Amino acid sequence: MKSFKQHTGLVAPIDRANVDTDMIIPKQFLKSIKRSGFGPNLFDELRYLDEGFPDQDNSQRPLNMDFSLNQPRFKGASILLARENFGCGSSREHAPWALDDYGFRVVIASSFADIFYNNCFKNGLLPIVLSKDIVDSLFLAVDANEGYELLIDLEQQRIDLPDGTSLSFEIDAFYKQCLLEGLDEIGLTLQDKESISAFEQQWRKDSPWLFDVL
Amino acid sequence: MAGKTLYDKLWDSHLVKQRDDGSALLYIDRHLLHEVTSPQAFEGLRLAGREPWRIDANLATADHNVPTTINERAGGIAAISDNVARIQVQTLDDNCEAFGITEYKMNDAGQGIVHVIGPEQGATLPGMTVVCGDSHTATHGALGALAHGIGTSEVEHVLASQCLVAKKMKNMLVRVDGQLGLGVTAKDVVLAVIARLGTAGGTGYAIEFGGDVFRNMSMEGRMTVCNMAIEAGARVGMVGVDDITLDYVKGRKFAPKGELWERAVANWQTLHSDDNAVFDAVIEFRGEDIQPQVSWGTSPEMVLPVSGVVPDPEQMDDPVKREGTARALSYMGLQAGQALTDIKVDRVFIGSCTNSRIEDLRAAAEVAKGRKVAANVKQVLIVPGSQAVKAQAEAEQLDQIFIDAGMEWREPGCSMCLAMNADKLGAGEHCASTSNRNFEGRQGNGGRTHLVGPAMAAAAAVAGHFVDVRELMSNETA
After folding, report:
1. DSSP states of B40-94 as a string?
2. A148: distance to nearest CA of chain B, Å?
3. Does pLDDT of B478 surpass 60?
4. Most exposed residue of A19, A35, A154, A173, measured as fewest CB within 10 angstroms of its CB?
């Protein structure tokens, strides 16, 4: 898995609450059997004025210039600033794949939906939870300052702002370690394969009806 | 000492290892797979040279993408006209064959929506941990199982290790006591719960549904309720085991038989929260207060009793809420103050993992019987949740009732719930839908979804607009 240690990047806002994963990547693009290539269809229904479909030349489609990511000042953004309950709805991991493929490395929001939050860490994408007040102030700062960049330091759990001040953020020790080291989580789990086998053997004795029926 | 909740018991019994960093390895009994969220996981296994840990823990079916017209289905996979969808359905078949995983293929007798066939086949059972790359996996919690959705990386993880890296959730009890009024269904209960909790109110929690109303509810109803826990932000929804659960499970294809059944039942009878269990949050309702619901906005929390009017964003203090409501009204083409019963319906969808079981179809048929679809309604899709539900409905001649009313009787699949196949809304069209999400574009680009129960959807189909289904029912008894 891709590791994440430190990142400096331009911040782009998506100023609405409850952004669901259908909005992040609409269903017609989930027919792909690949993990990559979702970036051009990130936020498809907000980003383009027409209806998108798979395997299309997206460069020819009419853009919705009201949508933040289409504005020149947010070109090349790699930090997404969002509001509460970001990533709610469907469990599709295509959502973090699309964010990653577009070029985002960090999403900052006042809260995240559980499944999306979890999926981010599997893809080297760092979701950061900050208080509603701080998120509000970041929206104002991004709006007021073109080229607004942040430095995110995962090891230190610190965000450096352009005005020289810093913010700290919380993150689970396990998630942090996985991202810092870019750990292969399956490999890590399989280091415990003897514990898993021992558990399974006992479980089979206790609950035999759960085994060998399919 | 405080007792344990149902969630605590299921967590403890499946705990392989608690790690120092707060994460844990949880053993997974049943892993359900479908065509949309599994191909990248199988590919990952292959690239890493890994084998599935325990083949017999997995069950697959094709549901999200499959066409629902009899003509397109009859030709098998080769006849799926959407190339990309055809490859995906074929890839599931290929992967299951390569790894030896049991699969109900598109036209098999056991096929259906993954969350309908699990309980129906006895492939998901009380006391199990159940995961699937689909957020509506909470459905199986109705059996007294610990069930939730996972991402594709976790699908690969479970395939490879039979475990999930998990963190324990908090416990929430949603208690509904008293009785539901005539014409009020499981869907109305869960929509009313989501309206109160909000779409993120359950984030970080496992929700247990308790109280008289759930104790008296059928298994189909409990599945409808648990299914939508995720729309309140909770990955897990569950109901404790009782006689209704055991009666439902008994005799199902993969359920234990004979002496094993007796042993299993003895175990399952402990699967309820202890009387002195402590919940981190408790939300209480009275069944009598719940009315048939209709969603008006673009989030499942934007829902009101059918007698309500569209809310006015100008009256809201919270700026984020005000803006969200204004945006929702603009997307939905609605005016503040408009009566919900004045909203005209262009299409109706009765189906999805929320409401496509036999009881749902019976409720819709009861309303449709002897009536006709209103002239302004372009299409009414009735999509049974599984081949078994379809066969049962046909045995009861419910299909004929729907067809006589001018509705379309389709083949099993997810269909217009997420509109990955050809079943979708046109831009600006209003749909009375028994599905679970009313997000922008969910049922088709620009489509406008209103979430309702099956009887309310059928009532909207024959009236041409939303209507309190109880009015149609009282006409019958008058």
Report:
1. HHHHHHHHHT---S-GGGEEEE--SS---SHHHHHT-GGG-S-HHHHHHHHHHHH
2. 23
3. no
4. A173
Q: What angle do CA A198, B2, B6 make, to 5 degrees?
A: 55
pLDDT tens string B67-107? 999 999 999 999 999 999 999 999 999 999 999 999 999 99
Q: How far are the Cα atoms of B299, B301, B307, B339, B367 from residue B467, in angstroms, in the given order? A: 21, 20, 9, 10, 12
Contact B120, B102 (CB under 8 A): no
How much of chain B exceeds pLDDT 90, in percent? 97
Orientation of helix B39-48 relative to helix B152-161, angle to 10°: 50
Question: What distance in Å separates residue B389's CA from the closest CA in chain A?
Answer: 21
DSSP symbols for A94-157: HHHHHHHHHT--EEEES-B-HHHHHHHHTTT-EEEE--HHHHHHHHHHHHHSTT-EEEEETTTT
Looking at the complex, report in whole angstroms how far the Cα of residue A75 sits from the nearest Cα belonging to chain B.
25
Arithmetic mean of pLDDT, B12-23:
94
Write out chain A residues lying below 8 Å of B54, CB-based. 200
Among candidates B25, B199, B260 on the partner chain, residue whose Cβ is nearest the Cβ of A88: B199
Sign of the dihedral defined by the CA atoms of residues B78, B82, B85, B87, in that order: positive
- DSSP 8-state code for residue A54: T
* CA pair distance B438, A22, nearest whole angstrom: 10
**What is this structure's pTM?**
0.97
- Would you call A54 and B84 a contact, using CB atoms and an 8 Å cutoff? yes
Each residue's pLDDT tens digit, B427-475: 999 999 999 999 999 999 999 999 999 999 999 999 999 999 999 986 5
Are residues B445 and A213, on separate chains, in Cβ contact within 8 Å?
no
pLDDT tens digit string along A36-45?
999 999 999 9
For residue A132, the one-letter residue type is K
Cross-chain Cβ contact B17/A173 below 8 Å: no
Place B2 in a pLDDT band, splitting at 50, 70 and 90: confident
pLDDT digits (tens, 9 = 90+) for B134-159: 999 999 999 999 999 999 999 999 99
Spell out the residues 6+ positions from residue A108 whose beta carbon is closer than 8 angstroms to its own: A11, A79, A80, A81, A82, A127, A128, A130, A135, A138
Question: Which amino acid, one-letter code, is at B296?
Answer: W
Q: What are phi and psi of A121, to 5 degrees?
A: -65, -25
Task: Give the pLDDT confidence of A24-68 residue by residue, as tens digits.
Answer: 999 999 999 999 999 999 999 999 999 999 989 999 999 999 999
**Strands A6-13 vs B236-238: parallel, antiparallel or unpaired:** unpaired
- Token representation of residue A61: 């489609």
* Beta carbons of B40 and A85 less than 8 Å apart: no
Report the C-alpha gap between A95 and A107 in whole angstroms.
12
